[in-house]
């Protein structure tokens, strides 16, 4: 019998409530997932009530305020604060996104902040993305030449060839797409997932790369590529507006053409 509920020890319990500051003009509730591997207890959902008149505009600002002023043990990744590094990816009100690019006032009420789904949680909002990075490495995301010697000057591209990379090379490896993909949830050991496949297509499309045949050979696999069933969650989730589902379709199309 398939079990659709989390085991009891993995279900979050109601945690601590941190009240609003006195005379808060615009109180807003943030419900935040907490897990401390050192205590061994179940995860919990803590509530923090902030005064939005005394907080920056983004969800990441709220998390930083909580960490700085209410609970220094709250753990999450962040770096650039500009939607560039991809490290603040988390699930906000049911959607994978970047906390630093989401405005608090875009959410009407309580804001629930959880870790990215279907990844082992290391602590609080920090998940283990080792598998995700291993899959990225599988597609060998670097320029490969097959005709030595290497040129003694930069490799030029025609503008039209460079334009083919638009929408592919902007990926920041935040993992919002792969962790929202049901096929990835069920086949994470063998399906490469949308982020790695988008990266593969980025190099296949690069006019300077000479390993297209080998790249396609490596992807032509029932699990690595064809576990994608075009559910499109990945494209819906991407906070950079990229379209991994279209890139995957591009790889499938090239493989189909090759077999004609
Ligand atoms: S299109 Fe659907 S199945 Fe394919 S990678 Fe995206 S979310 Fe997963
Ligand atoms: S395709 Fe988008 S969602 Fe996926 S890793 Fe890249 S930037 Fe993140
Ligand atoms: S902190 Fe870098 S993307 Fe959010």
Protein architecture, described:
By secondary structure, this protein is α/β, with parallel strands linked by helices. It has two domains: 8-127, Ubiquitin-like (UB roll) (Roll); 130-258, Orthogonal Bundle (Fumarate Reductase Iron-sulfur Protein, Chain B, domain 2), CATH 1.10.1060. The protein contains eight helices and eight strands; from the N terminus they run E-E-E-H-E-E-E-E-E-H-H-H-H-H-H-H. A six-stranded mixed sheet has the order 1-3-2-6-4-5, with helices on one face. The protein is elongated, with a radius of gyration of 21 Å. The model has no long low-confidence stretch (mean pLDDT 95). The structure holds iron/sulfur cluster (2 copies) and FE2/S2 (inorganic) cluster.
Jot down its keywords.
6-stranded mixed β-sheet, Ubiquitin-like (UB roll), alpha/beta, binds iron/sulfur cluster, 2 domains, binds FE2/S2 (inorganic) cluster, Fumarate Reductase Iron-sulfur Protein, Chain B, domain 2, 8 helices, 260 residues
């Amino acid at each position: 019998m398939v079990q659709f509920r989390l085991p009891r020890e993995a279900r979050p319990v109601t945690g601590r409530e941190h009240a609003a500051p006195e005379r808060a003009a615009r109180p807003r509730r943030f419900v935040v997932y907490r897990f401390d591997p050192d205590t061994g207890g179940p995860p919990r959902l803590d509530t923090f009530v902030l005064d939005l008149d005394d907080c920056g505009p983004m969800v990441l600002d709220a998390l930083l305020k909580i960490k700085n002023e209410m609970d220094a043990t709250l753990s999450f990744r962040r770096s650039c604060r500009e939607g560039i590094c991809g490290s603040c990816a988390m699930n906000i009100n049911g959607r994978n996104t970047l906390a630093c690019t989401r405005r608090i006032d875009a959410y009407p009420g309580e804001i629930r902040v959880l870790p990215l789904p279907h990844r082992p949680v290391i602590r609080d909002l920090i998940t283990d993305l080792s598998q995700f990075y291993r899959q990225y490495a599988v597609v060998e995301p670097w320029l490969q030449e097959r005709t030595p010697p290497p040129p003694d000057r930069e490799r030029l591209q025609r503008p039209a060839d460079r334009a083919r990379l638009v929408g592919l090379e902007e990926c920041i490896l935040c993992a919002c797409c792969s962790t929202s993909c049901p096929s990835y949830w069920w086949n994470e050991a063998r399906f490469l997932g949308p982020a790695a496949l988008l990266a593969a297509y980025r190099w296949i499309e690069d006019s300077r790369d000479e390993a297209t045949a080998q790249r396609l050979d490596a992807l032509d696999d029932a699990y690595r590529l064809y576990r994608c069933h075009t559910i499109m969650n990945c494209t819906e989730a991407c906070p950079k507006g990229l379209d991994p589902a279209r890139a995957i379709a591009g790889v499938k199309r090239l493989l189909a053409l090759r077999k004609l």
